[in-house]
Design a protein that fits this description.
Structural class: alpha/beta
Order of helices and strands: HEHEEHHEHEEHHHHHEEHEEHEEH
Distance between the termini: 17 Å
Helix content: 25-40%
Strand order of the largest sheet: 3-2-1-4-5-6
Largest sheet: 6 strands, parallel
Number of domains: 2
Strand content: 15-25%
Number of strands: 12
CATH topology of the largest domain: inorganic pyrophosphatase (n-terminal core)
CATH class of the largest domain: Alpha Beta
Radius of gyration: 20 Å
Shape: globular
Mean pLDDT: 94
């Protein structure tokens, strides 16, 4: 039947080196990518809680505000939105700069310059393909299901702290969302054992799912309707795409983070193997790519300055006009479908 999965062999990350860096330093600045998802926020909060147990001082500073459906992960309001006047000096005064859940510096947006110009030690913990060389130490494993998965394994393998409920909840949210509620390729027996352990620490899966997905604002649901109404299929109905404009967001009072997971609806259509969501931004646009099988949308995204995973990737084109670029991207996407489709 082809349904039996081979276990993933996780490439070894030098967790002891990471532990040594943490133990040898006292102050940490933690950050993640623009428009953070649950893996990004969950990893940040879990890492912060771990450092707090160790008696370390840390701050979480992000370019983007935390999406409303993820604020339950930050009940203490420890995450701050970047303000150059308030935060710029922290990039030079913190012992360690920690980049979580991204591996390209342009994903820092307004924080990129301060991060790159800092002379402090920089580390990156991530699970995406094609990392940029912008940090001193990379702790990257592309076979891990989530950055939260890496942090869990780090804590467990080094025994640096005991995982308590405060750490377990953000790690559960990180892993659950990045595995598509445990349906994506990297959902393994090992992942389920990790989740069982997190539940034993006090995580309530029903409550977490409800807070993540069942407390949407009306504006988000209306935006989803507008998004689905724009849906078009090409390449004999094997490639699909949707488009959202700034006018859509303004009319409905919606925000960019509301579009999380919209692109996945394309792959729920019978026969569709590759899907794209185009989102017009105030400056340029972004496109999210999803695929099934061996169609490498990470490479497709890479042709436009982006990246990600084999079947899930994205790109931001900040200085380009969306309407003029869509035909070029669609042509490339159709070529990728024709070249890599299993037929």
């Amino acid at each position: 039947m082809g349904l039996v999965k081979k276990p993933l062999l996780l490439l070894m990350i030098d967790f002891q080196k990471l532990a040594d860096i943490i133990k040898a330093n006292n102050t940490f600045l933690i950050t993640t990518h623009v428009n953070p998802d649950a893996d990004a926020i969950g990893s940040e909060v879990a890492f912060y809680k771990m450092l707090k147990i160790l008696g370390k001082k840390s701050k979480i500073i992000n370019h983007s505000a935390t999406p409303y459906n993820l604020k339950f992960l930050d009940t203490e309001n420890i995450i701050e939105k970047f303000d150059e006047a308030l935060h710029k000096n922290l990039f030079n005064s913190s012992d360690i700069l920690v980049a979580l859940d991204f591996n390209r510096s342009d994903r820092l947006v307004s924080m990129q310059k301060a991060f790159l110009e800092s002379k402090q030690l920089k580390i990156c913990i991530d699970h995406h393909l094609d990392p940029e060389d912008f940090v001193d130490n990379q702790f990257i494993g592309i076979d891990y299901a989530a950055t939260g998965h890496i942090i869990y394994e780090f804590v467990k393998k080094t025994n640096i702290v005991d995982i308590n409920k405060d750490i377990a909840i953000p790690l559960y949210a990180a892993i659950m969302t990045d595995t598509g509620s445990f349906r994506f390729e990297r959902t393994t027996a090992s992942i389920h054992r990790i989740i069982a352990n997190l539940l034993e620490k006090g995580v309530n899966p029903t409550e977490v799912y409800d807070l993540l997905y069942d407390e949407s604002k009306l504006s988000k649901i209306k935006l989803l309707g507008r998004c689905l109404s724009s849906l078009k299929l090409i390449a004999d109905n094997k490639v699909g795409y949707m488009i959202l404009t700034q006018q859509d967001f303004n009319k409905l009072g919606a925000i960019e983070s509301d579009t999380e997971n919209f692109v996945n609806f394309l792959l729920s259509i019978e026969g569709v193997r590759l899907g794209m969501l185009f989102i017009e931004l105030k400056h340029g646009f972004k496109v999210s790519f999803r695929s099934k099988g061996q169609i490498p949308v990470s490479r497709l995204a890479g042709e436009f300055g982006g990246g990600g995973h084999l079947n899930a990737a994205g790109a931001r084109l900040r200085a380009r006009d969306m309407n003029s670029m869509i035909p070029k991207i669609l042509e490339k996407a159709e070529n990728y479908y024709n070249k890599y489709s299993e037929g």
